[in-house]
Amino acid sequence: MRRPLVAGNWKMNGTRASVAELIQSLRQQALPEGVEVAVFPSFLHIPQVMAELDGDSIAVGVQDCASQTGFGALTGEVSVSQVAEFGCQWVLVGHSERRLVLGESDELVARKFVAAREAGLKPMLCVGERLEEREAGETLSVVERQLEAVLDLAGIAGFEEAVVAYEPVWAIGSGLTATPEQAQEVHAAIRGRLSREDAEIAAGVRILYGGSVKPENAQELFGMADIDGGLIGGASLKANDFGAICRAAGN
Ligand code: PEP
Fold first, then answer.
1. Which amino acid residue places its CA nearest to atom 8 of ligand 1?
2. How far apart are CA 227 and CA 185, in angstroms?
3. Ligand 1 atom closest to Cα of 230?
């Protein structure tokens, strides 16, 4: 039985005051026991978020990490060792904004995934196709290529403590959402690809959907067989909406 997971990617948003307000409102939400909840604030807000969550069951992750473990001369990067020391559990790797705006390759994403695993962190690997790729009928081959790079470097064992987030690029922040059937097709293909390596690990891997998830569409998406929760951008900045999405995952 896979435990549903809902994660909020706060991206490059927030001030000390707005983060404090968001945490306070999140803590007032009735979050279902059976659903794991995580938030991904900016690096600067991590200590504040950890302190203000004050032992709450909401886990904290970071939105990126360096591709090498340990410490060293790498100006501007944040090491997985530092992330682990701060008590974070999760690392987002391969978000489409990093792949497409910042030019991260499949190979670099795979190295970050491995670094996160080596530091005992849980990677949340984002994969997804661009609109042109979907229109050209390349959705499954793009997602498989992104997955393959990680399988090559981390092996299927790397997925034991990882989560995959399918996020069609055309649905991110656009208000467009994949239909539950479109999403399910890709989720099943991801699980199928992992299953070719190890059926047991594949059956346990949680595959989240991300892309304009809102309280109004969450229930229908989360009702699909291979959708185990969501990675939420915009709606995660509104405590009431995020709470409602978490509750939908618990139904
Ligand atoms: C995201 O950026 O991971 C995301 C899913 O964003 P949104 O929910 O705003 O589409």
1. 233
2. 10
3. 5
Segments forming the whole domain that contains residue 197: 5-250
Q: Return the bridge partners of 164, or none.
A: 125, 207
241 alpha carbon – ligand 1 mean position (Å): 13
10 CA distance to ligand 1 centroid (A)? 9
Give the mean pLDDT of 27-54.
96
Q: Ligand 1, closest atom to CA 234? A: 9
CATH classification at residue 131? 3.20.20.70
Residue found by looking up tokens 């501007």 in the block: 76
Cα of 233 to ligand 1 centre, how many Å? Answer: 3
Count of domains in the chain? 1
- Residue ID of nearest Cα to ligand 1 atom 4: 233
Output the CA torsion 243→218→97→203 (10° steps).
100
- The 3-state DSSP class for residue 40 equals strand
Q: Which residues pair with 166 in a beta bridge?
A: 127, 209
The residue with tokens 């896979």 is 2
Q: Is 32 helix (H, G, I), strand (E, B) or coil?
A: coil
**Residue 2 has what DSSP assignment?**
P
Please identify every residue annotated as catalytic.
Answer: 95, 167
- Say whether pTM exceeds 0.85: yes
Q: What stretch of H or E contains 59?
A: strand 59-62
Pick the atom of ligand 1 nearest to 165's CA: 3
pLDDT number for residue 1: 84
Mean pLDDT score, 172-192:
96
Buried b (16+ CB within 10 A) or exposed e, 176-193: ebbebeebbebbbbbbeb
